[in-house]
Amino acid sequence: RLGGERGEEPRSARLEGQPLSPGAALGRIETLPTFEGMAALERARLGDRADSTAAADVGERKARVRTALADVVKDLARTRKRLGSSLGPAELGLLESLALLEDDGRLIESIDEECARQNVALALRKVARDYAQAAVRAGRGGANASVLVGRSEEIEDLCLLVAARAVGERAPTGDAVLVVPERLTAVVALLAAAQKSAAVAICAAVSDGALGGALMRAAQIPAVGDVGGLYSWARAGDVALVDGAEGTVRVSPSPAQIARFRQRERDERR
């Protein structure tokens, strides 16, 4: 959850950031789930069965994760095909390499192995951590270090979204302002496009030529990067108005600001 205590009145703020994808959108803030939160949810639903190593429970977990992985990959592939024609050759090449990652046999084997030991969310977190550690070891001092780390970040978010689908947490969801704490991976950008997120706000800066930003522009989803103070001012469920052209995020905008936004929408439709 973003900063703020439950029951607090929402605070209004105009936060400036890095214009990333033009357009403006209004929606309620949401964040991606955490592995730990999903593990707790799974245990609350299934009790001891969540971490059981009994053959029937392990088989059910593996089947559920395989189905979730297939569904997420299908969403990614469909969105990749829809947005691909709007990308340049370099960006398209990066996008095609992402497709190879989704079919990585070693990744699927690792997920199966970990699902035999523990609940879905923690199994996928372990897989993500193993890939991250392997990337750091392989890239230490090498020219491809950033490439390997970037790949491991894509795998981490793929694992996160598969875990969410497997435990019934639909994320990202449509018509919401998705807040991303760090790097906007291509996996998250594609799923945001697939689920028709209203806008995306990233707390960290987005480098020029980053695939996540290019996908936001191709999907025509307003996006702002490098939004300082967002986690201090906003919390999940707050209304936010994102303007990707001017690079601002208004948390809990005033009725007058919302009215001006709605009028601009009507004018543009005419």
Overview of this protein structure:
It is built from 10 helices and 8 strands. It has 270 residues and is α/β, with parallel strands linked by helices. The chain has an 8-stranded mixed sheet, with helices on one face. Helix 2 packs across helix 6. The longest helix is centred in the first third of the chain and has 29 residues. The relative contact order is 0.22. The model has no long low-confidence stretch (mean pLDDT 89).
Summary, kept brief:
This protein is of the alpha/beta class.
Structural class of the secondary elements?
alpha/beta
Q: Which sequence of SSEs, written as H and E, runs from N to C?
A: EEEHHHHHHEHEHEHEEH
In which order are the strands of the major sheet placed?
1-8-7-3-4-5-6-2
Largest sheet: 8 strands, mixed
N-to-C span? 38 Å
Low-confidence stretches: none
Q: Please, what is the average pLDDT?
A: 89
Proportion of residues in β-strands: 5-15%
Spatial shape: globular
Which SSEs are present, and which pair or pack?
Layout: E1 13-16, E2 18-21, E3 24-31, H1 35-46, H2 55-83, H3 89-102, H4 105-115, H5 120-139, H6 145-167, E4 176-180, H7 186-194, E5 199-202, H8 211-219, E6 223-225, H9 230-233, E7 239-243, E8 248-251, H10 255-269
Parallel strand pairs: 3-4, 4-5, 5-6
Antiparallel strand pairs: 1-8, 2-6, 3-7, 7-8
Helix pairs in contact: 1-5, 1-6, 2-4, 2-6, 2-7, 4-5, 5-6, 7-8
Observed structural traits:
globular, alpha/beta, 14% strand, 8 strands, 270 residues
